[in-house]
């Protein structure tokens, strides 16, 4: 029984590590805007004081990125801004799986 438990723990750790592979992000926030850089499709939590939103970034295409929050979505090309879930999101760059966003509270 103990051996089975050890194997299950090892498999769980492996799955958790695999789930994180291929995605990363960094952000800088100042006042009412955040600059977000990320790699791979993911959900990013955006906070401005007590205002919080989960911003989904997916799919990432060669020239477009779709962002969504609170049931609203926008497909953006570089330089375009869309409003989703009370956030104004500007796509500043897309290169392969790397995405740059500027996010402001609307």
Automatic annotation (TrEMBL):
Q: Where is the signal peptide, in residue numbers?
A: 1-19
Q: Which domain of life is it from?
A: Bacteria
Provide the alphabetized UniProt keywords.
Signal
Q: What is this protein called?
A: Lipoprotein
Protein source organism = Pseudonocardia aurantiaca
């Amino acid at each position: 029984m103990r051996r089975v438990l050890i194997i299950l723990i090892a498999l769980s750790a492996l799955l958790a590590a695999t789930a994180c592979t291929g995605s990363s992000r960094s952000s800088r926030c100042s006042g009412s805007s955040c600059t977000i850089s990320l790699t791979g499709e993911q959900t990013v939590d955006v906070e401005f004081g007590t205002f919080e939103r989960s911003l989904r970034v997916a799919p990432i295409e060669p020239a477009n990125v779709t962002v969504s929050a609170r049931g609203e979505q926008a497909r953006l090309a570089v330089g375009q801004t869309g409003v989703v879930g009370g956030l104004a999101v500007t796509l500043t760059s897309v290169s392969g799986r790397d995405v740059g966003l500027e996010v402001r509270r609307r």
